[in-house]
């Protein structure tokens, strides 16, 4: 679980010279992994015989092989089909929630950083309250209170992440707004909003671009974790965390196929985001 | 004296945050949809039953009155009565904290030692194969869903190999362990109960291993980063150039500098650990604080939700505060 607040603010100065070759390898590997996962969840569902919620009444907990290449769960639903369909939901929610968090956080950060003064103080104290919890605990509490449903979950994960982006952007804006080219834009008669949009904003988003991929991985883990605890997406909807939860009863009996495949795909996808994010960080010289 | 002033200032800053947490949780649990009385009484309860229950827990009072009562209770250490069980929230929480703290403390200790050794090792080989391998492994650890890792460990080590006891509960009830602190390993030592100690240790292996894998990764990154910083510093290079023995360099320069950041790291890790413990306890039926808080949330048990959220926020804020103070003691620049 990435704690974003430490990323831009408190990190040590660029410690070692960036390891460029390694950074490139990380970025490439991460991109390839993510590309393969996206391809699999986009095309895969078209190739499988069973629907994600289709019940094969003759086969409950069937081991892998035959009509069900990865077996079936306790309800007689095809694991392969479910795992592939679930990927669409998991990836979609992760990307959507991070995008929403970036937009929300950036807006807050710009307002706080550019206006300063009382507005800044009030906004920052509100963010303090949100950040007085470990991120997953906050997600858990808000999800429990808001109730499950995909739009609610996107909102929950976005809300939990937005404060970190707000802080990152605010810190950048405070530096950028003092730079000569911003001054130049202002004195040349450009409106406040124009300066903000054309000069301050684009130059304040570097750390956000670096952190966002890592954050997508965290968002996937959060969604799956919430669903695993019964606070997110619920069965029969195909979602990796919910599938692992349903399969957890089989594990004690030694049945691996209900919970291992969804977890493996989750791990691989998150790893893709992590490799990409780590590579971008290394290249940007951000150490954490 | 400056340290005392710094501590006082940080404490004062924490007060409005915690007050904010108290108000926000109080309002949110009540404003958002969901009714604990209906959830707990079930569908067969009549309107009169619900009204009686509501009166019993003071939920028929106006909201400001409830808030005043709640705030008054907070200052006298009275956290109210659980709607699910009718028991005192304080008493329930006391029983639940021991097992969770035991899990978290053991896991964090092992992870810290492991992360320090691996992080320094990795930094000294920066850019070489060993460093790259370790960093990729750390990324894998960072990407592992802990609840799934726990299940895979159960699958392999319990179902497959049969090396550990079944993943339910913390100690074999046959060992007649008497409850003192709730931390079973500690209780077994205190009562000199050998079989209980063995049983508790057996039950701890998999949950601790799960948590260590998940928290060692971010810790290691951090240790590596600070070790790299030291390796690039003039002081270290001067010491190395003067031909100081390897052992002195490692202990006197590298390890110490990496450990200076330990308080901040510990605070960070504590946050990870609290989040993970909810999932890990659920997987291993640990019946600790995390599972208790989770059930409170699911049942919308107002006093339990309020108490657990405020306690977590309090611990989290205090740990960061302590970390800041220790950091200020070690690094005078912070105090300005």
Gyration radius over CA of chain B: 24 Å
Any idea what the radius of gyration of chain A is?
22 Å
Main interface by residue count: A-B, 58 and 65 residues
Number of domains of chain A: 1
Number of strands of chain A: 0
CATH architecture of the domain at 91-288 in chain B: Orthogonal Bundle
State the fourth-level CATH superfamily of chain A: MetI-like
What is the CATH fold-level name of the domain at 91-288 in chain B?
MetI-like fold
Instruction: Bin the strand percentage of chain A.
Output: under 5%
- The class by helix and strand makeup of chain A works out as mainly alpha
The unreliable regions of chain B are none
Order of helices and strands of chain A: HHHHHHHHHHH
Reading the helices and strands of chain B in chain order gives HHHHHHHHHHHHHH
Instruction: Please name the fourth-level CATH homologous superfamily of the domain at 91-288 in chain B.
Output: MetI-like
Give the beta-strand count of chain B.
Answer: 0
Q: State the separation between the terminal residues of chain A, measured CA to CA.
A: 13 Å
Protein structure class of chain B: mainly alpha
CATH domain class name of chain A = Mainly Alpha
Helix content of chain B: over 70%
Rough shape of chain B? globular
What count of helical segments of chain A does DSSP give?
Answer: 11
InterPro entries (chain A): BP-dependent_transpt_permease, MetI-like
Domain ABC transmembrane type-1 (chain A): 87-277
Main location (chain A): membrane
Organism (chain A): Nonomuraea harbinensis
What does this structure look like?
- Chain B: Belongs to the binding-protein-dependent transport system permease family.
- Chain B: Its main location: membrane.
- Chain B: It is a multi-pass membrane protein.
- The complex is a heterodimer of chains A (288) and B (336).
- By secondary structure, chain A is an all-alpha fold.
- Chain A has one domain: MetI-like fold.
- In chain A, 69% of the residues lie in helices and 0% in strands.
- The longest helix of chain A has 37 residues.
- The two termini of chain A are 13 Å apart.
- The N terminus of chain A is likely disordered.
- Chain B has a domain of 198 residues: MetI-like fold, CATH 1.10.3720.10.
- Chain B has 336 residues and is mostly helical.
- The longest helix of chain B has 38 residues.
- Chain B is globular, with a radius of gyration of 24 Å.
- In chain B, helix 1 packs antiparallel against helix 14, helix 6 crosses helix 9 and helix 7 crosses helix 9.
- The interface between A and B is large, with 58 and 65 residues.
